[in-house]
Design a protein that fits this description.
The protein is α/β, with parallel strands linked by helices. 36% of the residues lie in helices and 14% in strands. Helix 3 packs parallel to helix 11, helix 4 runs parallel beside helix 6 and helix 12 packs parallel to helix 17.
Length: 470
């Protein structure tokens, strides 16, 4: 087969305007040298400046547990509050309208909403089929309290949700709509206008921004979502273990937590059996915050702001178009495709997350574990599996609903057992995702490797271990 011999910037309108990011990569991301990193939806990559700033801050002063008035505690509190302000500025959210609750990650933010939202009979949870499992899991809280759970399916081949079906699911009472601004499976960017649509039907909105925020501007002065979970390591790589819930104060006031913990109350009596929650967002932050890492969020936000989120967006858009084009060009000798892309095949209303399967010369799917093994050996970081998004995967792979329901009642022990029940040759896809300092060489390296490794070759399953989970 023939593989493109090189990259010409003039073939990608707007790419040359992003060359500042190449200079930044050379100066601050030297740890990427010699490796092709294409897993930005899994995690961003930290700059050397971020690590230096963390070390210098800790070496320069003593910081203590913020729940006190002593000097080290006050120093930590000041930095945490500075980070809250930076988060609000990043999303252009008014501090009078929005609050920031620090959590371990976006998953922790979703659980906070799920466990405290006033679900009950007469209220509903509306989930799009395209959701991360951290959002899907909210349904267990809703079901346990007698709320109705409605699912709006993903439709192929572009893996989008039809607005008419969403509107129909929103009718008939208040509750909560949860959907991602950008799919972590397909890269589909769902309409942010759905926030206003849900509000018009009396529903609150949880807008999952974990995959969207790293390369797209989210303006909460215009898109007035009620709850916005985010993981900061996905935006700028460091620190891990710090996420957040950006919430409208009015919506936050409707949450009722089923428990309390250290740091979340104003007053409490052990013998009297009563407690008074803290009057602000700290009522939702359990125990001692990660006060040594939360200030790194403010540094990371300023780092991205200095670069310019619009510049990152432009670079990711250019490279996504290039990646889709290169994957489509890969052909076996008989002209059949080497790659099957799931979701949009162009850059229209999509982000830099591209999921696909490799096809052998017979048109059969190559087990994604083979691709994981081979790309790892070549020094290429992609992700394989279902990416914790079963709804998008079920739609992408065309699994009929009756088969999914019957699989729940079959005796299975491993994921391979489930695949046999569903008649699937593979348990997932391959995902390449682009981000802050991706470049054209990364895209060309992946495409060149896939063409050289799989065009006109028969796959070999030998030595693969059984799957344990998705």
């Amino acid at each position: 087969m023939r593989i493109s011999s090189g990259f010409r910037a003039e073939l990608m309108p707007g790419y040359a305007e992003t060359r500042r990011l190449d200079e930044l990569r050379a100066a601050e991301y030297g740890h990427l040298d010699g490796h092709t990193y294409l897993d930005y939806t899994g995690s961003g990559v930290a700059a050397a400046a971020q690590i230096r700033a963390h070390a210098e801050r800790l070496a320069g002063r003593c910081y203590g547990n913020p729940h006190s008035e002593n000097p080290t505690s006050s120093a930590s509190t000041a930095l945490v509050e500075g980070a809250r302000r930076a988060v609000l500025e990043f999303f252009n959210a008014s501090p009078e309208e929005y609050a920031v609750v620090f959590t371990h990650n976006a998953t922790g933010a979703c659980r906070l909403v799920g466990e405290a939202y006033p679900f009950g009979r007469g209220r509903r949870l509306v989930l799009t089929g395209d959701n991360h499992n951290s959002v899907n899991g909210i349904r267990e809280f809703a079901k346990a309290r007698g709320a109705e759970v409605a699912h709006v399916p993903v439709r192929g081949p572009d893996l989008r949700v039809r607005e008419a079906e969403l509107a129909a699911a929103l009718r008939g009472g208040g509750g909560l709509l949860a959907f991602p601004a950008q799919s972590n499976f397909s890269g589909v960017q769902h309409p942010l206008g759905w926030v206003d649509l849900a509000h018009a039907h009396g529903c609150d909105v949880l807008l999952d921004a974990a995959a969207f925020a790293p390369a797209n501007r989210l303006d909460l002065s215009r898109v007035r979502a009620d709850f916005v979970p985010v993981s900061w390591y996905k935006v700028f790589g460091y620190p891990t273990g710090v996420g957040g819930l950006v919430a409208r104060r009015e919506a936050l006031a409707r949450l009722r937590r089923p428990w309390f913990a250290g740091g979340t109350i104003q007053a409490v009596s052990a013998l009297g059996g009563w407690h008074v929650p803290a009057p602000d967002e700290t009522a939702f932050e359990d125990g001692t915050l990660n006060f040594l890492s939360i200030p790194d969020v403010e540094f990371g936000i300023h780092w991205i702001e200095d670069i310019g989120i619009d510049l990152v967006h432009r670079r990711v858009g250019c490279l996504t178009a290039l990646l889709l084009r290169r994957l489509a060009e890969l052909r076996h000798a008989d002209g059949s495709p080497v790659i099957r892309v799931y979701g949009p095949e162009d850059g229209d209303r999509r982000g830099g997350t591209v999921s696909f399967n490799v096809l052998d010369r017979r048109g059969a799917v190559v087990d994604e574990r083979i691709v994981a093994r081979d790309t790892a050996a070549a020094g290429i970081s992609v992700r394989t599996g279902c990416f914790c998004n079963p709804g998008a995967g079920e739609a992408a792979f065309g699994i009929p609903e009756p088969a999914l329901r019957s699989a729940a009642h079959r005796r299975t022990r491993t994921l391979d057992d489930y695949l046999d029940v569903l008649g699937l040759p593979s348990g997932g896809a391959v995902r390449a995702s682009l981000g802050l300092v991706s470049n054209a060489a990364d895209v060309e390296r992946l495409a060149g490797f896939l063409g050289a490794a799989y065009a006109d070759r028969e796959p070999d399953r030998a030595g693969l271990r059984p799957r344990e989970r998705c």
